[in-house]
């Protein structure tokens, strides 16, 4: 039995509480191709935010910017009911926890850049589960990739809201991965808090300065660098402001 689609990319909307939503360009449609890892991810442990993080990291910065490497992910899903072509696309982290073995496939991605990110995912890599398009968007938990990219069967299902009549079984356009629940974050990390750090880091060169959550906010699949992942994870140890 197919699970509800995670997040539509074809006509994605910005998070309701994101004040800069009007600045975001509409996500690329499937007509326009865009070009755009199996180790356990270390968990951030900083308990005093950016200042402590900077202190522990600046010693090995080396003075030179290294090439950006993405090894973690952020997956957006809608926790509130919303019908798309008569199908409820709601899928919260509690819905994931209720699946057999707390595992499901991440289907319904219909944007080329997001699809390419799916195809780049490696077995064992971790991702933030992000509640999107809801009253208070933000990170609620961590999942891991348990099966690398393979054809998304919903593209061939005429009853599915993400059916694509132009895709062929001999050369499928769209992919999905399997994800498994790892744990809830120690607290909910709201978009507003992450954005405050992003703005501060844009000014002082911190790890979230180029975070795709704010530079390509409409994408439902987003890569994270090790530094971005570690810093955001460290926020779960902070008391909410």
From TrEMBL:
Region of interest: Disordered: 1-61
Biased composition (Basic and acidic residues): 10-39
GO cellular component, as recorded: nucleus
Keyword terms of this UniProt record: Nucleus, Phosphoprotein
Subcellular location: Nucleus
Domain EVE: 72-234
Pfam families to which the protein is assigned, alphabetical: EVE
Highest taxon of source: Eukaryota
Gene3D superfamilies (alphabetical): ph1033 like domains (3.10.590.10)
Record's function text: Specifically binds 5-hydroxymethylcytosine (5hmC), suggesting that it acts as a specific reader of 5hmC.
Name of the protein: Thymocyte nuclear protein 1
Organism the protein comes from: Chordeiles acutipennis
Gene for this chain: Thyn1
